């Protein structure tokens, strides 16, 4: 059978997937607010820009060759054919709805390339949003000290070298989303419904490597780097949770029962993780914080992403509790091991992604849509080792691939701000802007002139 198939799309599935694509795109501005509120006031615009600029860079590369690398015919178990759909060749065409003859057969001249029951272009758009936010996630590890130009170059190279091949391994299913797909999805048969490996482990590992190569912020860890706007952080967490329903339920690629089941498990896992994070804070520090609630929300969303199709409500609760507690503890690892992961990308996304991926092998149940059985439901170790191999392979590839890309950028155009630029703040040194006009709030014309804000 030729792939993609040609025919008439299901309008209900198409409507849901267009909505899901828009929801996932909203997650990137949500992430921008989440990260932007966590940094100091002199870095907020740069954090917003790093996420928003990922839309531009990755969006262009995706339609040129990224989609083809991810969903083109498999080449050597590494990547899809980058030329098969170059510039979306062969995917943009057909009429508004394919026409049928009196016998109900689709008229070929009006047919639309399909992925499942939706137009291929809708699937292209949906997966583009995954690529964008994966790159944007990395930026939280290097806040306050990475130059903007090198970030754009790194984003483009990393998406090409790391994300597009890994997306092929995980998301390209034989005869469903690709003609011949990736090895994790088809040969290993690890379950990663919406990107625990391809998105979160991948981005978390990349953030770790980039933070180490870039070096620590001036004054870290002795200087406190407190969030300047906690309402921004909570707004970002809320937008992420809202958009994540497109991320997880949208990965059903249709308006169906799988979407409904994953919607529910996403809610439950996230609720449990938030409460678990707050409980850890209360026991450890004596109080529960707004930042902890927002971080727990994201940790739960991360952990339930790979597992939402393979667990029931009890499994989702277990994953949320474990992820919320472990991620709350893991964010302190940077102080013990000395790597400056500015906004806890490693503690939340890498650790949360690993927890969610591995726990499929423990709490997956046959009653869930994926139909796999974990250790605690009598399935033995079969699914657990598959999950471990998939997570380990993506982790290792991302560590090595990111190191190569980061070192290329470092030794060509450089990565880091100067000491003067870091002291002044990345907003002013890189963008010649500030997020807040403090002179207008309480200063006068003399102080504005002295600080260089007037005029």
TrEMBL record:
It is a multi-pass membrane protein. Residues 15-436 form the Ammonium transporter AmtB-like domain. SUPFAM superfamilies: Ammonium transporter (SSF111352). It is found in: Cell membrane. Keywords: Ammonia transport, Cell membrane, Membrane, Transmembrane, Transmembrane helix, Transport. Involved in the uptake of ammonium/ammonia (NH(4)(+)/NH(3)). Homotrimer. This is Ammonium transporter. It comes from Rhodococcus wratislaviensis NBRC 100605. The lineage of its organism: Bacteria, Bacillati, Actinomycetota, Actinomycetes, Mycobacteriales.
